[in-house]
Amino acid sequence: MKIPNLFSFYQKAEEQKIMNMQISQNYIKTVELFAGVGGFRIGLENISNQSKSFKVVWSNQWEPSTKVQHASQIYEKQFGYANHSNEDISKVSVEDIPEHDLLVGGFPCQDYSVASTLKNSHGIVGKKGVLWWEIYRILQEKKDKAPKYLLLENVDRLLKSPASQRGRDFAIILSSLNTLGYSVEWRVINASDYGMPQRRRRVFIFASKIDTNFYNTLKNNVASNILSSSGLFAKTFPVKRIETEQIMTKKLSDDLVDITNNFNKDTPKQNAFLDTGYMINSVYYTSKVEVNYEDKYSVLGDFLQDEKTVPKEFYINDEELEKWKYQKGSKSIERINKTTGHKYTYSEGSMGFPDCVTKPARTIITGEGGASASRFKHVVCINGKHRRLTPLELERLNMFPDNHTEGIANTKRAFLMGNALVIGIVEKLGNTIIKGIN
Fold this sequence. Notes:
Elements: H1 6-26, E1 27-33, H2 39-45, E2 53-60, H3 70-79, E3 84-85, E4 102-106, H4 132-142, E5 149-155, H5 168-179, E6 182-190, E7 201-209, H6 213-220, H7 223-230, H8 232-236, E8 248-251, H9 256-262, E9 276-280, E10 283-287, H10 318-328, E11 331-336, E12 343-348, E13 379-382, E14 385-388, H11 391-397, H12 410-419, H13 423-436
Parallel strand pairs: 1-2, 1-4, 2-3, 4-5
Antiparallel strand pairs: 5-7, 6-7, 6-9, 8-10, 9-10, 11-12, 13-14
Helix pairs in contact: 2-13, 5-9
């Protein structure tokens, strides 16, 4: 009878344990909140040929306004059920969210005002259902195990909301992150400015904890260099040189109730935050930017599918075409305010019709789907025939894989792409992040 070599057995077990630890160390463990159909995940996990890679270890997608959770269904279909939560994030215990290095998500633009201050023993009380405070809750309750990095996306009006106190909501976000020990960089990026196929302006926000390389870059460099060359966004999406005199700087209060009540009250119509900036130790620096891009540009026509494969339902007949021309044209309409009875004239200018296929596409909106004539839906004219864009084409304009959302109604697929982001932006930012992580 052969006696097993126990030393060899334990040696192999120990080697496997070490290898598992090395694999774990090579992953940047990522949590994706408000995941939609997985745009952040695709962009980050697309990154290859690196000593490290991103791995989503937990995700959450919940749409409160609909019974059927279409986005979550697509997410589960593409990435599996494991470690995915289709539950209201406000009802998820922070203990159920695994430890992670990076938290990502596109959270809604809402009213972020608070009813109590950080100094209050009960913490912050924001408006119910405001999802920014769910991000804050996770960071606060994780304490020293909170992620080192955040990468968030929002509509660019976040920097100017609310209209009565421009910038107040973003000031609340910056101040609350500062209190939790993060520095913050931000940048409004139009995807088409950097060779991507859609004119989609969104603000991206990157936060990093004390003692990370990114934090130290902000700590050890002057503002003009950070915004022009050494910051995350300047490295990833080049801009022309920003000089010191172009930069606004101010100190933020750490009292969120004070910010809620008083931020920008004296000059409410002036922008407190411009298209790029950063904040460290309560002080923020911000400036306008001028894009510096000299590579190839993408156009709508490059992303259209073969006409032979376009379903008939997307073509517009002559009778319907007149309705589309009316919607796209200039008009003046007399209306009456239902509350006051006041008469007024609503006017709007004409839009280019059909959409130009030799330029980047206009922004995809959530109402893109459906056959009814609309001012904002895309229409192209190919070989003399007018038609709407297909779900596959909408996916391509957001740089998703073909037929990523296949399996649900076309109108829902269009809605999901209207809610999505341009994956190329996430991928480029991820490449820069992965190179700078400690």
